[in-house]
Design a protein that fits this description.
With 197 residues, this protein is of the alpha/beta class. It has 7 helices and 7 strands; from the N terminus they run E-E-E-H-E-H-E-H-H-E-E-H-H-H. It holds the Pfam family UDG.
Length: 197
């Protein structure tokens, strides 16, 4: 799609009481918090490991590679920013080494609150970090879980490769698109239950 043009989807503000969160220590890494993007009311939730920067070094709006590839795929299957809410296992991007398991467990308290509040009808985990964290299974991987729906903590869930993996390995693009077709079919053919009253 040569005329594809990615854009920065609207950012959901961080809740007032979490703006200064330092629960896991990633606040010392210097990257800013991103709570969520897209449509906070959407019932289709995308779960990524952590947010890429939304601004470049000059603080100008910036669409990172993850967002570009994700938007291209969802656009090709007929979904828009209004259909999707994106959030993260970690709300800040780590910039140096950290205690991965411990940190993810702490920040997922926020995700659990989001899930309770938003009650998504379908969750798409992108990449092994999101899959392993959300499924609570360090052995889980996208390769064995993609292409089907699973019930995880009461939520209908599926998995697909991380957009950055797809950028690095172009042979994954076809599988990535297949997975988004599955999601779009599920979402669009039974859209009514996905629209909140
Ligand atoms: S990554 Fe999560 S737990 Fe850690 S400081 Fe940010 S919001 Fe708090």
């Amino acid at each position: 799609m040569s005329d594809f043009c990615a854009s920065l989807w609207p950012e959901e503000s961080t809740p007032e009481e979490q703006i200064n969160c330092s629960d896991c220590g990633l606040d010392k890494h210097g990257s800013r918090m991103v709570w969520g993007e897209g449509n906070p009311e959407a019932s289709l939730m995308i779960l990524l490991d952590n947010p890429g920067a939304r601004e470049d070094r000059d603080n100008k709006p910036f669409v990172c590679g993850t967002r570009q590839t994700l938007q291209k795929a969802v656009g090709e299957v007929g979904l828009t920013a209004g259909d999707l809410y994106i959030t993260y296992i970690l709300k800040r991007k780590p910039t140096r080494s950290y205690e991965k398991e411990h940190t993810r467990q702490i920040c997922m308290n926020h995700l659990n609150q989001q899930l309770l509040a938003k009650q998504p009808k379908l969750i798409v985990c992108l990449g092994n970090v999101a899959v392993q964290s959300f499924f609570h299974n360090p052995e889980a991987d996208v390769k064995s879980l993609r292409g089907k729906f699973h019930h995880v903590h009461g939520y209908k869930t599926t998995a697909a490769y991380h957009p950055l993996a797809v950028r690095r390995r172009p042979n994954l693009w076809r599988l990535f698109l297949e997975d988004w077709m599955l999601v779009a079919k599920e979402y669009l053919t039974s859209k009514k239950p996905y629209i909140k009253e």
